[in-house]
Amino acid sequence: MGVFSSGGVGIDLGSANVTIFLESEGVVLREPSYVLSLRDEPDSVLACGRDARQMLGRTPRAAVLVSPVMDGAVGDIELATTLLRTLSEKAIGRRRALDRTRVVVSMGLGVTRVERAALREAVKALGARRAALIRSSVAAAVGAGVSISEPKGVMVVNIGGSTTEVAVISMDGVVASRTARTGGMALDEAIIRYIRNEKGLVIGQRTAEDLKIDIGSAKEAGFTEAEDVLLRGRDVRTGKPATISISQRDVHKAILPPLQTLLENIREAFENTPPELAADILERGIYLSGGGARLEGLRERLSEMLGMPVHMGESPEDDVAAGAGAAAADERLASRLAQSGCLIEL
User: Per residue in 174-208, pLDDT tens?
Assistant: First the structure.
């Protein structure tokens, strides 16, 4: 794989995953936002991305698994830079992969000035020919093919790993927004707690995420016992390995509290939208984006709760990276977004 000097690269730097989009090839990489480093020497990086995540729960005491991006913000500039550089080189297939490119990296709506400065430093350290930051929700709308240049409001709900952004966009800018510190990881943590408290079994984050993906559902009915799965973990009382049976109904009960919080945040955001824009949204519907949007039954339940259409593309987890890539490749689009304050050149 390769990128010409004029090529555009879009990067969705999320709390759960890093997704990289190349102008000529589309999404070429999606890997977990993890860095494995030595506990006493944080700068000594052993692995990044999927290689690091595969060691989750299996690392020696001398090593620690770190996510340099939490709640949509960079917490460790050096590790974030290492993560971005390593995964970019893996995606493009050469060292110093971003030197001759234009790179646009996603930025959460709720980031503070300090958090934005940290992200800016991490991106500038990549050495790209040109670099910019783009608001995640705006990138999601662009990547999903939603028209945002008209003087009509459109609501985009971007459900990430640790944050959910609800944004009303009109004329290439964010008119109203709300950020909640809840997302896909909150569902994973709820599953871990439920199985420990109700089933007496200790499981890890990877197992909880797999359960959510395989049999998790936002639906309140239609469960079948045939979908039970065998789950291995450690017995709470004895500390010995144990196996239990878990059903789709169990997983639904586990994720219900954070799911209700997520749905309520979206409803409150809509209720606080200016009346003129609310009328536009009622007509056009809501657009779901982000990996968390893939939860089975979520789109239907949200549509039923709000009484309006809820749309979702085939690959909602790719929307932000695709939108960032479009801004990197299209100067006219980038200029419009820069004028509205949604894209910041570095």
Answer: 988 888 888 889 999 999 999 999 999 999 888 99
Q: Nearest CA to 86 among 54, 41, 45, 120?
A: 45
Q: Detail the DSSP E strand segments found in the chain.
A: 8-13, 17-22, 26-32, 35-38, 45-48, 63-66, 69-70, 73-74, 102-107, 130-135, 154-159, 164-170, 173-180, 201-202, 229-235, 241-246, 286-289, 310-312, 343-345
Q: What are phi and psi of 26, to 5 degrees?
A: 80, -155
CA–chain centroid gap for 248, Å, is 24
Token couple for 94 = 């050469």
Q: Are 334 and 132 in contact (CB under 8 A)?
A: yes
Amino acid present at 16: A
308 vs 283: CA distance, rounded Å? 8
pTM attached to this predicted model: 0.89
HSE (side-chain half, CA atoms, 13 Å) at 69: 31
Tokens of 14: 């999320």
Please report the pLDDT score of residue 3 as a whole number: 33
Number of CB atoms found within 10 A of residue 148's CB:
24
Bridging pattern class, strands 35-38 and 241-246: unpaired
Give the DSSP per-residue string, 130-198.
Answer: EEEEEEHHHHHHHHTT---SSSS-EEEEEE-SS-EEEEEEETTEEEEEEEES-SHHHHHHHHHHHHHHH
What is the amino acid identity at position 132? A
Worst-scoring range by mean pLDDT, 52-66, 86-100, 101-115, 305-319?
A: 52-66
pLDDT class of 169 with cuts at 50, 70, 90: very high
**Dihedral, 60, 61, 62, 63 alpha carbons, nearest 10:** 60
- Rounded to whole angstroms, the Cα distance separating 132 from 212 reads 34
197's tokens: 């408290």
Report the C-alpha gap between 346 and 121 in whole angstroms: 9
Query: What was the pLDDT predicted at 219?
Result: 84
What is 119-134 written as a DSSP string? HHHHHHTT--SEEEEE
Q: At a CB cut-off of 8 Å and minimum separation 6, what does 335 contact?
A: none
Q: How far is CA 244 from the centre of its chain?
A: 31
